[in-house]
């Protein structure tokens, strides 16, 4: 009998890449770049004051579990926000990746038990009523990582 964990059943509950978050200084200009260069259209736009962002979701493809893979364009709404700090330090570019799950609290707990710092004690409100939790980039190979459970 092998002690190797069954890789077909991931403990994290993560099933897909939900979106890639991209920090930008001018949301409208960034939307226009992705529209005119790749043909991606905005599916949803909102301001999330808690996170300090104005954001747009651009759908790239749908999945058979009802999810989608998107680009999320993020413009800061205030200078002390995470995205504003990121832009000051790095300029425009990839800010985070987000994995989809059907139970964000359980996924965060399972991953936290592996020694990764979970930045949110409880899920916060994300795009379009989703529930989100962030993992510390220093525990994730330098990649700020979000877990997201869709509203539906
Ligand atoms: C910071 N660091 C990053 C990073 N942000 N590394 C990779 N990717 C990022 N995006 C690194 C810094 O370079 C620094 O490294 C260290 O982490 C500490 O950064 P800091 O900014 O000086 O310090 P903190 O601790 O104040 O903030 C970092 C932290 C924060 C990741 C904890 O930004 C955070 O809590 N982020 C989660 C929330 C968030 O990002 N919200 C915006 C998206 P060195 O080596 O210099 O120490 S909201 C969103 O996306 C919603 C709307 C949604 O999807 O629905």
UniProtKB/TrEMBL annotation:
<keyword id="KW-0479">Metal-binding</keyword>
<dbReference type="InterPro" id="IPR051785">
    <property type="entry name" value="MMCE/EMCE_epimerase"/>
</dbReference>
<protein>
    <submittedName>
        <fullName>Methylmalonyl-CoA/ethylmalonyl-CoA epimerase</fullName>
    </submittedName>
</protein>
<feature type="domain" description="VOC">
    <location>
        <begin position="16"/>
        <end position="150"/>
    </location>
</feature>
<comment type="similarity">
    <text>Belongs to the methylmalonyl-CoA epimerase family.</text>
</comment>
<dbReference type="InterPro" id="IPR037523">
    <property type="entry name" value="VOC_core"/>
</dbReference>
<dbReference type="GO" id="GO:0004493">
    <property type="term" value="F:methylmalonyl-CoA epimerase activity"/>
</dbReference>
<dbReference type="GO" id="GO:0046872">
    <property type="term" value="F:metal ion binding"/>
</dbReference>
<dbReference type="GO" id="GO:0046491">
    <property type="term" value="P:L-methylmalonyl-CoA metabolic process"/>
</dbReference>
<dbReference type="InterPro" id="IPR029068">
    <property type="entry name" value="Glyas_Bleomycin-R_OHBP_Dase"/>
</dbReference>
<dbReference type="InterPro" id="IPR017515">
    <property type="entry name" value="MeMalonyl-CoA_epimerase"/>
</dbReference>
<dbReference type="Pfam" id="PF13669">
    <property type="entry name" value="Glyoxalase_4"/>
</dbReference>
């Amino acid at each position: 009998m092998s002690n190797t964990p069954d890789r077909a059943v991931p403990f994290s509950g993560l099933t897909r890449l939900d979106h890639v978050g991209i920090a930008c200084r001018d949301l409208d200009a960034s939307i226009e770049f992705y529209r005119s260069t790749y043909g991606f259209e905005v599916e949803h736009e909102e301001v999330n004051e808690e996170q300090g962002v104005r954001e747009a979701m651009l759908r790239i493809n749908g999945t058979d579990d009802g999810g989608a893979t998107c680009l999320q364009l993020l413009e800061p709404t205030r200078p002390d926000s995470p995205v504003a700090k990121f832009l000051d330090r790095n300029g425009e570019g990839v800010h985070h990746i987000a994995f989809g799950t059907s139970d964000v609290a359980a996924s965060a707990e399972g991953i936290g038990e592996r020694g990764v710092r979970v930045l949110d004690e409880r899920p916060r409100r994300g795009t379009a009523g989703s529930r989100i939790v962030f993992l510390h980039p220093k525990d994730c190979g330098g990649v700020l990582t979000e877990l997201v459970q869709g509203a539906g």
